Amino acid sequence: MPEFRLEDTIAALATPVGEGGLAVIRVSGPETFPIIKTIFYFRKEQDLFLLPSHTLHFGEIRNEKGEPLDQVLISLFQAPHSYTGEDVIEISTHGGIAVSRRILDLLIQKGARHAEPGEFTKRAFLHGKMDLTQAEAVLDLIKSKSEKSLEAAVRQLKGSLSTRLKALKDELMNLYAHMEAYLDFPDEHLEVYSDSELLQKLKNLRTQVETLLASFKRGILLREGVRMAIVGKPNVGKSALFNALLERDRALVSEYPGTTRDMLEEALEIKGTYIRMVDTAGLAPRPGHPLDQMGMERTREVLKEAQLYLFLVDGSLVLEEADKMVFEEIPQGKPLLVLITKKDLPQKITAAEIQNKFPAQEVLTISAKTREGLSRLEEKIADLVLQESAGQEGEQITRLRHKHALEAAQTALLRAENAFCAEQSLEFVVADLKIALDELRELIGEIYSEDLLDVIFSEFCIGK
């Protein structure tokens, strides 16, 4: 990212580029009010500098020749009571590429500069309006693709994760400061914890870190979604189910086996959960064409990566060796539903028979053609996803940065605990406590580098 200067006044379009009812241009920085005063004209004469914060005002934007560009509303937010902690004005103009571009160009001419990606939120962090985990929650909120991921982002933005991390950091800080003081001033006869107390505190801190680490699985599933593979032998109805769940004809369907030769992936929301659904090529004992073989290899790659499986068998046919072969290719230990398809046709397979041959969480009978059984299927998919991501709501970590920092803290705490149990010098214990403490402080943003901020905020869109 270019050099970051808080003394600059920045401006950017905060709404998507294109036609729409409204466009919002955000301006933030020390010269926000002086710049707006030169281009905004009230319907009745007023002094912009005397108006109260958090108020709306109607008027028009005029260029340097005094020609009106648009009628607008401006929203005033005076520092420090704004999103960035600086003076902020948001201009609500009519939507459209030309008008918003002309107003933004006018702001640049008057002394503002184009904001960089995430620069408004970066300023909010630097002015203490939020910590780093809350700043990341802003991005998660913008990118949330389901009700569950939205709820998780809102909780993190409100500070549920921050509160937990800060409490853990404070507890570790107290222990570190106590031990550091004891080492620095041995002649002061400072009270020191008993061996059992100190060991218990170390174990308790490590347990809390491990609990947060265990929540990563839930957090990443909620944020990035669950990859669900639809698998089975050729012509069992995989693509028909794929289309039925999407409620549109995305995959080509025919009565000829091997119609699907490549994987198709689409995202959908089921009962508030985000699913990345993959339609795969059928697995057959003897592929008849080189393209079939290539499609089967891709299916096997999907099977390795998926987190949830729908295994389909054709209910209108008796079970074949090919069905068993496909089932054996599905990795064990992951959520699995067995679906008996084509319920609209005379059935030659029972659920009890399937359950005996193919153990799974549940066996369901469905018809993609009539949609019978699909509501029950969606409920079971949602149940399995939530079960797979079970954990304490509001306190899950959602990013690899969180995971790596906590893993480093966990390792340092374990070293401290082992050094203490081995009766090594307390200096070794204190050194590792300091490493764990710094990892937690960096996690919430009490200490940081410019490189770290650049990595985090470069993911944001311009205008946020």
The largest beta-sheet arranges its strands as: 3-4-5-6-2-1-7
What's the gyration radius in Å?
29 Å
Give the N-terminus to C-terminus distance in angstroms: 15 Å
Total strands? 13
CATH superfamily of the largest domain, by name, is: P-loop containing nucleotide triphosphate hydrolases
Mean pLDDT across the residues is 85
What percentage of amino acids are in beta strands?
15-25%
Count of individual domains: 3
Structural class: alpha/beta
What's the order of the H and E elements? EEHEEEEHEHHHHHHEHEEHEHEHEHHHH
Q: Please give the count of helices.
A: 16
CATH level 1 name of the largest domain: Alpha Beta
**Percent helix range:** 40-55%
Instruction: Tell me about the largest β-sheet.
Output: 7 strands, mixed
CATH architecture type of the largest domain? 3-Layer(aba) Sandwich
Shape: flat
Give unreliable regions as ranges. none
As for the CATH topology of the largest domain, it is Rossmann fold
